[in-house]
Amino acid sequence: MTDKDTGKTGPLVIFTPSGKRGRVDPGTPVLTAARQLGVDLDSVCGGRGICSKCQVTPGTGEFAKHGLTVAPDALSPFNAVEERYDRIRGLKAGRRLGCQAQVLKDVVIDVPPESQVHRQVVRKRAEARDIVLDPAVRLQYVEVDQPDMHHPSGDRERLLAALDEATGLADIKFDHHLLSSLQPTLRKEKWAVTAAIHLRPEPTVIALWPGFHEGGIHGLAVDLGSTTIAGHLVDLVSGEVIASSGLMNPQIRFGEDLMSRVSYGMMNPGGAGEMTKAVRDGLNRLFDELATEAGIDKATILDSAFVMNPVMHHLFLGLDPYELGQAPFALATGAAQSLMASEIGLTLAPGTRAYVLPLIAGHVGADAAAVALSEQPHKSDDLVLVVDVGTNAEIFLGNKTGVMACSSPTGPAFEGAQISSGQRAAPGAIERVEIDPATKEPRFRVIGSDLWSDEAGFAEAIATTGLTGICGSGIIEAVAEMRMAGIVDASGLIGSAEKCGSIRSIPDGRTHAYVLWEGGETSPRILVTNADIRAIQMAKAALYAGARLLMDKRGVDTVDRVVLAGAFGAHISPKHAMVLGMIPDCPLDKVTSAGNAAGTGARIALLNIGARDEVETLVHRVHKIETAVEPRFQEHFVNATAMPNAAEPFPHLASIVTLPDVDFNAGNEGGGRRRRRRG
Ligand code: FES
């Protein structure tokens, strides 16, 4: 019963899964033992047997690994507090309240994930790091001393003294808006209250409930895009997303793209203010929807994290984005903002805080910073290219030794805009395409159905889903498949039926178009026109040129891996992206998708207070490259309009795909452009 290192006597306690162990005095409560040994065991009520956050599972019997036999009476018997808790709320079988159970003999105690303060929130992708739950808001239950005429002090002061003692935090502040309701709140449950304390920039009481607060606390992670706004309502105790919803950005009525919104602000007095109001109103509607969907009290939403591009950032904060419309793209501020949500027009609880992630540069926003926070290029051993594909592509290149970033204007073609039959990714849109290189006949799949168009039952399937157009990933596959089948040449020209060998090639003005779907009674004819291909070439050339420019700056010709972020990135097939030359050549299995990494970055900043420091440091370390003033960007862009590229070799691609050596410009067919050959 004596520890050889410390000389301490008493029963040995081993906590799992941490493996922390040590001897304690007999009769020590498990919660106290955990604190003495530095074990992560939660407690909101300070050991009063009210919150049940301290639940543990003691083991009994043989623990060969630890060389320990645990007797059935290693812990004190169930006491009255546990019995009452079990009777009223129910304790899971085998569980004890750590603040009540006392250590009497050697014991092994498991701390289940829900009792760990800093539990891991598991991210679904294998290569993604889990998020360590450590939110900026925490709850603390306290019983406050009653007023005493002989020792006069204010209710607020006695509450803060009780909180200082219970939390170990010094000099906790108090939101002024709580003062008017403080006295009735304290007296309602006989001086017992639960306080929500926000830790940044300094510990501050931001909400207060009488007695023990059962309703949990929640936060919002918001990706405020120029086209869509996505919001996630997150349980700040478990780290789980409990509701997600989105809406079209109501600013669209002032302009589809960012620059048209900047011009709307320039040309209309008060225009920027109108757009600010529109987006804030939209967010308030979204937050109401999320709270209703999750069935929670909106007053329990106490924190929020926002990511967005620089123009959206300025409009959201009520700043005129005028300067962002012209070089040198000066930001009013790029620093992270820790605000009261009410200051920026959000109708949440009076104490709710809003954290806006920092921007990287005038063209590289907080959404990009959030992608970096999620994908961690600055912690990568190998050289990684991270591309967030949207109307602008935000691109990072780097590893542990340094990270560079740029933004490249890809335009909306990847989202299905500027495409003759293009549409957003929604049920009824063609999302996958294959073309038989021998027959040049296509088959495709539509969002909402698992059937390919040449499979039995497809007609019935599209009667259900509709067949309305082609989305971004569909057009990319269509163009890449046309290139692989020899229907399109490297310059992007569609051959005539005679030259490309497909009767689906039909004249279309001075060029040709490929008939992907003849149309039916309820569905339109779907063509891939030469103008569509041109739009995709422009978009992918901008993306590639941005990536290549960063590679030049880094002095490399290859990257080790590519991460495609963004909702669109999640649906791109790496092979087709590489056939087009959207991304640099690398082994296909080194191209992965990160899903909505900007939204994930917002969630990380919401759930982990340290991540806010990390991203604020990171944006200063990232070396920004402004593509607009780099002469080589134009050169890379021109080379990258060819498929895959007029100057760069694509050896990994060549090892898996042989692209037909066709040239439909010969004889000036289609009134065409000069073909650029690979160098
Ligand atoms: Fe609250 Fe044990 S610490 S019930």
Write structural notes for this entry.
With 679 residues, this protein is of the alpha/beta class. The protein is built from 18 helices and 33 strands. A 6-stranded mixed beta sheet has the order 18-17-16-19-21-20, sandwiched between helices. A 6-stranded mixed beta sheet has the order 32-31-22-23-24-33, sandwiched between helices. A hairpin with a 5-residue loop joins strand 17 (228-235) and strand 18 (241-248). Helix 8 (366-375) crosses helix 15 (597-607), helix 8 (366-375) packs across helix 16 (609-621) and helix 12 crosses helix 17. The radius of gyration is 30 Å and the shape is elongated. It starts with 11 loop residues before the first strand and ends in a 23-residue tail after the last helix. The model is unreliable at 669-679 (pLDDT under 50). The structure holds FE2/S2 (inorganic) cluster.
The count of strands amounts to 33
The stretches of 5 or more residues where confidence is low (pLDDT under 50) are 669-679
Helix segment tally: 18
Task: Provide the β-strand percentage band.
Answer: 15-25%
Structural class by helix and strand composition? alpha/beta
Give the ligands present: FE2/S2 (inorganic) cluster
Q: Evaluate the radius of gyration.
A: 30 Å
From the spread of the alpha carbons, the general shape counts as elongated
Main beta-sheet annotation = 6 strands, mixed
Q: Specify the helix fraction band.
A: 25-40%
Order of strands, widest sheet: 18-17-16-19-21-20
Mean pLDDT: 91
Terminal Cα separation, in Å? 78 Å
Summarize the topology.
Blueprint: E1 12-16, E2 21-23, E3 28-29, H1 30-36, E4 55-58, E5 61-63, E6 68-70, H2 80-88, E7 96-97, E8 102-103, E9 107-110, E10 120-121, E11 131-132, E12 137-143, H3 155-167, E13 173-174, H4 179-188, E14 192-198, E15 204-210, E16 218-224, E17 228-235, E18 241-248, H5 258-267, H6 271-294, E19 301-308, H7 310-316, E20 337-340, E21 353-356, H8 366-375, E22 384-388, E23 393-399, E24 402-408, E25 429-435, E26 442-446, H9 458-465, E27 469-470, H10 472-484, H11 497-500, E28 505-508, E29 511-517, E30 526-529, H12 530-554, E31 561-565, H13 566-569, H14 574-580, E32 591-595, H15 597-607, H16 609-621, E33 623-624, H17 631-640, H18 651-656
Parallel strand pairs: 1-9, 13-15, 16-19, 19-21, 22-31, 24-33, 25-27, 31-32
Antiparallel strand pairs: 1-2, 3-8, 4-7, 4-9, 5-6, 10-11, 12-14, 14-15, 16-17, 17-18, 20-21, 22-23, 23-24, 25-26, 28-29, 29-30
Helix pairs in contact: 5-6, 8-15, 8-16, 10-14, 12-17, 15-16
Bound molecules: FE2/S2 (inorganic) cluster.
FE2/S2 (inorganic) cluster is lined by residues 31, 43-45, 47-54, 97-99.
